[in-house]
Amino acid sequence: MSTHAHSAVRCPHCSTALMISTVNGNSPAPPVREEWTPPPVWEVLAAYADRVRDAATAKRGAAKVRESMMRARAAAAQRKAAQTARARPSRSA
Predict the structure, then answer these.
(1) Where are the domains of the chain?
(2) What contacts 33, CB < 8 A, 6 or more positions away?
(3) What is the pLDDT along the chain (93 residues), one digit of tens a residue?
């Protein structure tokens, strides 16, 4: 069964579909659609606020990232060269 056949308004506690009905002949208000938004950055970073920065660990991590990026670039260049070589057949004299 399609989800469009059901009401979009649900109880926040039990997830039961809620029906909007008219009261005294008045038209119902359009359903309010709540969209999830991520928490503010300051709230997320608050968990890391009391941590001490270790320079040696940071340098090792940065070196690992640089090395990984260099390997990835070299592999990409090698793949591109191989693809170019396959696309262009070699000419014999």
Answers:
(1) 55-87
(2) 8
(3) 444 444 567 777 787 777 766 666 666 566 666 788 888 888 888 888 888 778 899 899 999 999 999 999 999 999 999 999 998 876 665
